[in-house]
Amino acid sequence: MRAAIADVAGQLNAEVVERTAELERIFLDKIPEVHGDDAIQELLVASTASNLSVMFEALRHGIAVDQIEVPAPAAAYAQRFAQRGLPVEALLRAYRLGDHRFIQWFMERLAASASSPAQLERAASEVVSFVVDYVDRVSEALIEIYAEERELWAQRTDAARAARIRAVLSDTSLDETTAEIMVGRAMHRWHVGVVLWLESEQRDAATRMDEATRALHDVGPSETLVVPADAHTLWAWFTAPTEDAAREVELSAVLERCPAVRVAIGEPARHLHGFRTTHREALQARTVAEAAAPPQRDTHFTQVRLAALLSENLDDLRTWVQRTLGDLGADDAATARLRETVRTYLETGEISIETARRLHVHRNTVRYRVQRAEEIRGRPLHEDRIALEVALVACSQLGSAVLHPRGDD
Question: What 3-state DSSP class applies to 172?
């Protein structure tokens, strides 16, 4: 039996070029992912030939499967598949197709050379067992090679793309044409900047970031550019042909798919200046989102524009708020109600009835709270009116970040 297997293996190994060509035709017919890529097809041929030679020689010399390493061309083929972003299922499909044909070759030759049906049965059983074990061992190794290369390639390409984008954001000497080449996006179109980040440190941050990246790409119909800013943060730009289309960008599906993330969104803007501006606005909106209480999962720059502009220096803003509001800037629930009442009262043109309607309280309650707020502040509302309104907005949107405990000077 051993001699019969060795003889057939030697015969087939001498025909490895023809056998490789036969499998190549099958693979090209059954695996569309390899079409149109000369480098992939060349590696497919090399991988097939090397696998066949290793298998033929192992059967010829009785080498156990656990002593066989993945052929170098097969490993390179898996790496190239990963670099191209092709599915690992397509990579393994060749082995499922190939092992079937391999066994057929052997059975045809063994049937012609076996001395008895019993010998043929034993030989066939050994060959089939070898092929199954070999394909299992190589497939497991290739899956690991593919996964490692996919991660490394993604890191390299993401890092390179992120470096180019950082340069476009910071280098004001770049012209629009150069920026388009570096970013790979038409700058004259409308852009919406987005910052997405994990709410807290996550053990599986890489997995969550991958899912968030896919979710952002699925938003559509706008073109999407996504790059990692760090292990827990993504920067993204949605590009659309018109301002209306840009304003239609909706991220609720992203928040639904990725419950551990938060997003901040800039205003639509055009050209290279707009590409930078909308990103900067998203960063500012994130600052407000992280300072606000309670935290919001999605924060639009348009909703927090004033607080975003003020929050670039929170220490100075906190000092200014305290000077403007006095004890009306205290961080407690009762004072917060007074501030909200005063802010609404000023927005309504100091109309108590309208303020009461919006806050769902009696108008006498409004009058009491306004009077109490003036007492706590130490001066009437009309004094330094503009500063008062700005300070109240800052308190409403930034919360404890600009407030002080009661009793602080």
Answer: coil
> Are the C-beta atoms of 329 and 402 separated by less than 8 Å?
yes
Q: Is the pLDDT of residue 121 over 90?
A: no
Rounded Cα distance between 43 and 142, Å, is 14
User: Which residues of the chain are in CATH 3.30.70.270 domains?
Assistant: 184-303
- pLDDT tens digit string along 26-73? 998 888 888 767 778 888 999 999 999 999 999 999 999 999 999 999
Q: The tokens 């656990």 sit on which residue?
A: 66
CATH class in words for 184-303 = alpha beta
Question: How far from 139 is each of 40, 96, 168, CA to CA, in Å?
Answer: 18, 10, 42
Query: Against a cut of 0.70, is the pTM above it?
Result: no
pLDDT digits (tens, 9 = 90+) for 318-371: 899 888 998 999 988 899 999 999 999 999 999 999 999 999 999 999 999 999
Q: Which two tokens stand for residue 32?
A: 């569309």
Q: Which residue has the tokens 């100091």?
A: 350
Q: How confident is the model at residue 272 (pLDDT cuts 50, 70, 90)?
A: very high
Closest alpha carbon to 342 in 209, 329, 132, 68: 329
Tokens at 73, concatenated? 């061309």
Task: Name residue 288's amino acid.
Answer: V
Distance CA 370, CA 356 (A): 12
Q: Helix, strand, coil: what percent of the chain each, to 5?
A: 70, 10, 20
**Whole-angstrom Cα distance, residue 23 to residue 41?**
12
* Location of each CATH 1.10.10.2840 domain in the chain: 309-401
Residue 91: how many other CB atoms lie within 10 Å: 25
For the CA atoms of 319, 325, 326, 327, what is the dihedral angle to 10 degrees? Answer: -120
Integer CA distances (angstroms), 152 to 79, 85, 142, 232, in order? 10, 12, 15, 18
The domain 2-153 is placed in CATH, from the list 3.10.20, 1.10.490, 1.10.12, 1.25.10, at 1.10.490
Task: Identify the CATH assignment for 309-401 out of 2.30.42.10, 3.30.450.40, 1.10.10.2840, 3.90.1140.10.
Answer: 1.10.10.2840
| Residues 240/257, Cβ–Cβ less than 8 Å | no
